[in-house]
Amino acid sequence: MQTFKCLLHKSPLRPELVDGADFICIRELTGGSVFW
C-alpha cells in the first residue's frame, strides 16, 4: 500500500508513523471454511 505525502495530515495516526510504513492487506477467500 502506498502512502501519499499530501494526505498524511488526514490520517488518525501521527505522520511520522505512517510515512514510509509498509502495509500488507490479507483477505480470506474461503467463505468461512476451516481447513485443518
Write the layout of secondary structure elements.
Blueprint: H1 15-18
**Range of helix content:** 10-25%
Quickly count the domains. 1
Summarize the main sheet: none
Ranges where pLDDT stays below 50 over 5 or more residues in a row are none
* Helix/sheet category: little secondary structure
Q: N- to C-terminal separation?
A: 31 Å
Mean pLDDT: 74
In what range is the share of β-strand residues?
under 5%
The shape is: elongated
Report the radius of gyration as a whole number of Å.
15 Å
User: What oligomeric state is this?
Assistant: single chain
* Number of contiguous helices: 1
Give the SSE string: H
Number of strands: 0
Question: What can you tell me about this protein's structure?
Answer:
The chain has 36 residues and is low in regular secondary structure. The protein has one domain (1-28). 11% of the residues lie in helices and 0% in strands. It contains 1 helix and no strands. It has one helix spanning 15-18. It is elongated, with a radius of gyration of 15 Å. The two termini are 31 Å apart.
